[in-house]
UniProtKB/TrEMBL annotation:
Name of protein: Riboflavin synthase
PROSITE patterns found in the cross-reference section: LUMAZINE_BIND
Organism (species): Streptomyces toyocaensis
Role of this protein: Catalyzes the dismutation of two molecules of 6,7-dimethyl-8-ribityllumazine, resulting in the formation of riboflavin and 5-amino-6-(D-ribitylamino)uracil.
Gene Ontology biological process terms in this record: riboflavin biosynthetic process
Length: 204
């Protein structure tokens, strides 16, 4: 489990195509500290498994399902990525519960800068809009953010200087894709209420 608090901006140093999958090599001096084969690291909000680790770099395999459901397929050598290690037991939940399971992708629609913050408007797939509410939580490229305004096909978030400086949202421009993960609690509530209405829950 992750919290959506990005630990560092990493970089893609190599991309190897493996038929219907690919292997990334990434540089991340912070997240590679103590890293071992089989560990999980969130890359732009996608939970990936460490295959190899050497120095401040690690490799991770990305299967076709992940490439199709996320924006990782658009990454190339030199791309900057948000990196986060899983939350340690007993650690602080600084953001919200993030699984690293991307629900879909959005697109940066626009940016409105202010003196001390910036408002970013992002498109929202129709099948995810019911999970996004004003002042609720959403994960964008692995960053835990609070929704400012939510519409049927978009939402907005306000970014403080720290977020702009230390994450990919500081450099994303209109037209750029972003990974989205909605609040998992909302999905469980929807399923449970649906089962109650149909009586399916009692039959299990």
């Amino acid at each position: 489990m992750f919290t959506g608090i990005v630990e560092e901006l990493g970089e893609i140093t190599a991309v190897e195509t493996l038929g219907d999958a690919c292997r990334f090599r990434l540089r991340g001096p912070v997240v590679t500290q103590g890293a071992r084969h089989g560990d999980s690291i969130a890359v732009n909000g996608v939970c990936l498994t460490v295959v190899e680790h050497e120095g401040d770099e690690f490799t991770a395999d990305v299967m076709a399902e992940t490439l199709n459901r996320s924006s990782l397929g658009a990454l190339a050598v030199g791309s900057r990525v948000n990196l986060e290690r899983p939350m340690a037991v007993g650690g602080r939940l600084g953001g919200h519960i993030v699984q690293g399971h991307v629900d879909g992708t959005g697109e940066v629609l626009g940016r409105k800068p202010s003196e001390n913050w910036e408002l970013v408007r992002i498109s929202l797939p129709a099948d995810l809009s019911r999970y996004v509410v004003e002042k609720g939580s959403i994960t964008v490229d692995g960053i835990s953010l609070t929704v400012v305004d939510a519409g049927p096909d978009f939402f907005t978030v306000s970014l403080i200087p720290t977020t702009l400086a230390l994450t990919t949202l500081g450099i994303k421009q209109p037209g750029d894709p972003v990974n989205l993960e909605v609040d998992v609690i909302a999905k469980y509530v929807e399923r449970l209420l649906g089962d109650r209405a149909t009586g399916e829950g009692a039959a299990r």
